[in-house]
Each structure stands twice: as C-alpha cells, then as structure tokens.
Amino acid sequence: MSRGRTPQSLTRKTNTKTTRNRLLIVCEGEVTEVEYFEGITRLYRAPTVKVECVGKGRDPLKTVNHALRLRENSEKAARSKRDSFLKIDHVWCVVDVDDHTTLDGALRLAKRNDVHLIVSNPCFEIWLLWHYQDFASQTNRFDLPKKLDGHIPGYSKKKAIPTGFPFGEAEHSAAKKRALCCDPQHDAPCRQGRNPSSNVWLAVEAVRGEGRKP
User: Kind and range of the H or E element at 214?
Assistant: First the structure.
C-alpha cells in the first residue's frame, strides 16, 4: 500500500473520447467537508468526481490509507472489466491539523503515493469562514465554529453546510485570496501551513477543471 508511485501530471487528459479525469476526494470529516465538496461538484457539473468520507475514528493517516485502498480497488476493477474509465486518475484527501499525531505520517505516505493531501490549520472551518470575512489570527477548532455562527446561524451545533452557502466564483476567489494572504507558501498539496491556513482551494480548482462552468 505504501509503495512509491510514479508521480502523475495534474494536466487534464485531452483524448477525443474522454476529456475528463476521474477524481476521488476523500474527506476526514463525515459531514461538513463532504457536503461542501458535493456542493462544489454540483456547481461545476462534474460527474466524474466522487466524494467519500472515512467515518468515525478518522485521522489523517487513516484518510490517506482509505484513499489508497479505493484507488487500488478501482485499478483492479478497470483491469477485470477492461474498462479504463473505472480507474481513478487523481486522488485528493482533505484533512485538518487539529490535535492529530498522524499528520506527519500522512504527509509522507501521500507524497510517496501521488496523493494530493489538502491540510487546513487548525480545521476546515477556517476555509468556510474565509468565504465571508477576513481572519488572520491564530485560532483553534473550538472557536472557529462559533465564529461561523455569525454567518451560518447554529453552525457550531449542526456543523452542516446550509442551502444558501456562497459557493460562487466571487466568494471562492475571496476565500482563496484570504488563504494566500495568511500563508503565501501554502499553495501546493502535501504540506502543513501556519495557523491559520488552508489550501482547500487547490481541490476546488481541480473539480472545476474536470467539470463545466455554470
């Protein structure tokens, strides 16, 4: 499972019949992250993007290992059925820093196996908050949901993406700009940024590249 892989190009395929790659996004979180990326997938009408969650007892290393198993299964299915479209082309994992002790191991495993590991510090909520406002102070996973309550009433209790969440291009661009202002170096997968930071925008733009603009 942890054997090295030849790095894949992030460039989209340009075959005449198949112009889109199959993307797998595996989320550490069970609700918020999944709902967010399902919303992004609908927005860009990207049917070749599949969103999964790891489930309870999750951590960054389990997330990457789960993604590797799913990719391996897709490769076996493609060979068995002689259908290359069943093979997952690119794998993205979305995790938090939180208090996890396995993040360093997850980063090493992802790098060795051509998995694009996306890391939010301290947690995914910082990316959501940047859709609404500037925020550059060090924070933690307990305070961020409360800050989102001002924009998404009751978020700290439900921790769910509301129907009216601002998925649009303008809000995404603003969130990306705020993220890069806080940590300009956090512009590639498989790295941990400062607090606060997030490179979720990389995965969003990968989905957009495989879909059709609304």
Answer: none
